[in-house]
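Protein in question reproduced for absentees:

***
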Amino acid sequence: MERRLGGVIHAYQKYDPTKFPSPTQPPPDLVSSAFEQALMYGNYHELTEEELARAIRLDASQMAGLGPSLDMLRAILEERKRKILETYECDSVQKKARRAFQQSTKEVRLPKELDKFFRRAVAQEQPYLLESLWYQAGDDNSPNARNLLKVTQRMSDKHNIEELASKYHFTGIESMSITKALEVKEELEKIDELLKQLEEAEKTAQIAIIDMEMLSEFAQPGDMQQLEEMRRNLENLAREQAERQGLEKDPNNKGGFRLTPKAYKIFQGRLLERIFSQLAPSRSGRHQGDVVGEGAVELQQTKPYEFGDSVANMDLPQTIINALLRHGDERPLRLHGDDIVVHKTRNHPKCATCVIMDMSGSMRYDGQYINVKRMALAMQGLIQSEYPGDFLRFIEMYTFAKLISPGEIIELMPKQVTIHDPWVRLKADMSDNEISEQQVHPHFTNIQHSLKLARQNLVNSDTPNRQIVLITDGLPTAHFEDEWLYMLYPPDPMTEQATMREARLCQKEGITINIFLVPSWSQSEEDIRFAYRLAETTKGRVFFTSGRDLDRFVVWDYVQNRRDIIS
């Protein structure tokens, strides 16, 4: 027998592999919603498999042929609905329900003081009035209590049947009992719900949204088996997409997916993509010109050698080619100055930045703290991806100042306001071992302590380009004097003086303070004047920005600063 090359050839008829989602196409965004929830509430929400399936958007053509046709299932349901509406009429059952309700009211015998209230409840057909009467009846097992429940049930039946008649157009002649009418109503509503689910699934390929148990009441067992197989295939696809985006199965939660550092980076990348896509139409754009000369970073572009250029940056292959083109087969090959090309270089100075994030009580208003945390994640993503040599630190500011790691940013929340007095004059000796931070009211704004902590972190950085990015909504209300912590509201000149002294120490160290002033319900002209005074002390600037644009303003200002340093 002649040997066939290639073995057995299989014909796949259930689906076209070329139309199934490509493993190289960009995955759907599964992490942004989870991170936005974490920014708002300070903790991560684990995604269930159903939530994961709802988050994925597929082309409906990708599931064509994977199971029974959704059009076929919809046709089965629509045919069942048509037969019901063509079989029954609804006028007679409405009359039956009305009579049953009126008859049930005649069996109720209430005291005179409650009878008038009962007649009003019956006339208005208000279930909540009957419920109130039932509570007043006292004993749940009394005849009056049981009769009131019966009236309530008959009223409910009457309302449901009236809704059935108004919602569906019956054209048949067969009359229904009250019980049968209620069963028909339930069946028609199930069909409508399934038709809605099938329509949505056809648009988005989200088989998980279909109620399989409900559908099994109408579809054939073989169709349900194929549909279940399709659902499993799409669930496997969802899990694969989740893994590509950094979501992994939580071993402690059988049905949950948790966010990993990979998802963290993807979310930061999407933040930066959104920020710079908004900046793209501007005149300046994002592209910055290279500074040619003796620098630290070697570029792909080359230029002819000039006296003084370092031969360490020579493009050796291109230099040899130039010599061969110039001198042909001449041996030995001699290099001349005109043959040599060197790589262009760019200066790459470092920046050292401390970002002070206000988490005092007032940042809770209008969700400003969410914008601050989103900005911090975007800044960290920018530094890690484009300026990995830069120094970046984050400081949480409230009654105290605390250095935090990037991993703790998500968990930051505004401090709970613990004093509501309009006039506060407090101080605490923090050198006293009997006093801890947990005993001190946390919701004040201590800019002085935050600037001090930032200065201590920046002073030893190996670059002259040092700055503090201060994000706040107003005046400071707390400061340290030696070991004494003062909490003063309304803001006191003593707190401003202590803050300005710390700003002057930053200025002596060559540290610039840039203030991003976010709007607040309590902001006044004095808040703005203070921000200007603080920025001018270190030749810094004040930015006024709406909270939702904070990440864009801070990130772009950082990029602009680096461009100014390079040029």
The first helix runs from residue 32 to 41.
